[in-house]
Design brief:
With about 220 residues, the chain is an alpha+beta fold. It has helices spanning about 25-30, 50-60, 80-85, 140-145, 165-175, 200-210, and strands at about 5-15, 35-40, 65-70, 70-75, 90-95, 105-110, 115, 125-130, 130, 135-140, 155, 160-165, 180-190, 190, 195.
Amino acid sequence: MTRGTMIDKMLTIGIPTYGQVDPSFAVQLRLLQVPFKTFQVLNPQNMQVDEARNFIVDKMQGDYLFFLDSDVIPPIDAITRLVEHKKDIVCGLYFQKQSPFFPVIFNKSEAGGRYDVKMWYEKNKLIEVYSAGLGCCLIKREVFEKIGAPWFKFTTGWGEVMRESEDHYFFRRAREKGYKIYCDTLITCGHMGKEMMTEPMWEMMREEAFPKNKPITN
């Protein structure tokens, strides 16, 4: 795809929110480049996040779905860059907004069937990951058709403690159907909390918490 070329397909933008959004998100949303000839915006409010995501998929009309969380600030060309990869599922990179602010991409854990944060990643590259956050993620419609509803679900274990979040649940089911999950680590987003968590802030924190002379484990 040549930059500037409009894609003759439809995009659905899904934004689950709990109410009003931060003004900086609203501004960035207006600036977001949408390289599709037609698009649809779905913004379910005040639902549990798995319910909101299922609602979005159920109502989507697009050939692609771009999930954008209302506390994630993507580059304005994020959709263009994601679609250029021609992957079934591809995400941008953002960071946890609570300490220790790890990147929201995951490896498969070797113990207990859980997920380990993929702290050490190749910068500015398209990498395959085991799971990720859905705050900035482009997914082809056929993925949802093949997986089947419910696409997102909080699963619980003994004592109703959450065992698996809705994003891990989705990516696990996608992998079971043969799909791979990718993250473009060049597409770095801000993540709004008490402060806007960005990649430069993560680099500063990582250097303090994990000095270069300290062995790295993952």
